């Protein structure tokens, strides 16, 4: 079982602020890193899947980077909006495994 | 295109009762998964399937059974419900396995065992 850590556990930001949070994972046995956005009362929705060291992905105001050598990924949100309020999950896929190991998530609240 | 459909959305069971959580997907995905979500914990994998007729245990399989008779359907069976199985259950599917493609999740089933 791989250990995936997310920080912070929760944060509150003002509308318009930019923010970022971290996903840490064991750098050995890495295969893929996923980010999901999970709004209350809905199901998780995929944001990014990254597999290569140095990968950068972007979707609108949200972007992510990946460092497999040191075992971390950052998720950035530029100019946060109230609709960005959600829990952001990262999940690690290990080599040779069909299982994803999920972190506990970072709960973001954007204050209007 | 409905994606991943789970039923029921809510259910209350008494200790010792059994039930089946239904999951179906219309995306022709080979890979399907059952996760449970407990407060303060990450999603935990219960069972997964890499194709029709093939299933395997995940991290927390005890107390559950699955079957995969068709590509579309992946039901999860609770034989003797226990309070520890109170949780929110998510079914998911993906185009390929080994973490290469994103998971598509159903809307979840909130189960309470009393």
Structural write-up:
The complex is a heterodimer of chains A (112) and B (114). With 112 residues, chain A is mainly beta. Chain A is built from no helices and 11 strands. Chain A has strands spanning 5-7, 10-14, 19-24, 30-38, 45-50, 56-59, 62-67, 72-77, 86-94, 100-102, 106-111. In chain A, the strands form 2 sheets. In chain A, strands 2, 4, 5, 9, 10 and 11 form a 6-stranded mixed sheet that branches. A 5-stranded antiparallel sheet of chain A has the order 1-3-8-7-6, with no helix packed on it. The radius of gyration of chain A is 13 Å and the shape is globular. In chain A, 36% of the residues are buried. The mean pLDDT of chain A is 93. Chain B is mostly beta strands and 114 residues long. Helices cover 0% and strands 48% of the residues of chain B. Chain B has strands at residues 4-7, 10-13, 19-25, 31-37, 44-51, 54-57, 64-66, 76-78, 87-94, 104-105, 109-113. Chain B is globular, with a radius of gyration of 13 Å. Chain B starts with a strand and ends with a strand. Classes of the chains: A mainly beta (112), B mainly beta (114). At the A-B interface, strand 4, strand 5, strand 9 and strand 10 of A face strand 5 and strand 10 of B.
């Amino acid at each position: 079982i791989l250990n995936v850590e997310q920080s912070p556990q929760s944060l509150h930001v003002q509308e318009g602020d930019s923010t970022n949070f971290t996903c840490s994972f064991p750098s050995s046995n890495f295969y893929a890193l996923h980010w999901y956005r999970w709004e209350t009362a809905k199901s998780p929705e995929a944001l990014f899947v990254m597999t290569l060291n140095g990968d950068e992905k972007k979707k609108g105001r949200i972007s992510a980077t990946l460092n497999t050598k040191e075992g971390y990924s950052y998720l950035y949100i530029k100019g946060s909006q109230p609709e960005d309020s959600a829990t952001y999950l990262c999940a690690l896929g290990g080599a040779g495994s069909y299982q994803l190991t999920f972190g506990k998530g970072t709960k973001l609240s954007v204050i209007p | 295109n409905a994606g991943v459909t789970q039923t029921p959305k809510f259910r209350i069971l008494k200790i010792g009762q059994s039930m089946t959580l239904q999951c179906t997907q219309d995306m022709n995905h080979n890979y399907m998964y059952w996760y449970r979500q407990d407060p303060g914990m990450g999603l935990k994998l219960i069972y997964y399937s890499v194709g029709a007729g093939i299933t395997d245990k995940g991290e927390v399989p005890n107390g559950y059974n699955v079957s995969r008779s068709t590509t579309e359907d992946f039901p999860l069976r609770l034989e003797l419900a226990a309070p520890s199985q109170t949780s929110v259950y998510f079914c998911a599917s993906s185009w390929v396995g080994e973490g290469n493609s994103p998971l598509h999740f159903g809307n979840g089933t909130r189960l309470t065992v009393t």
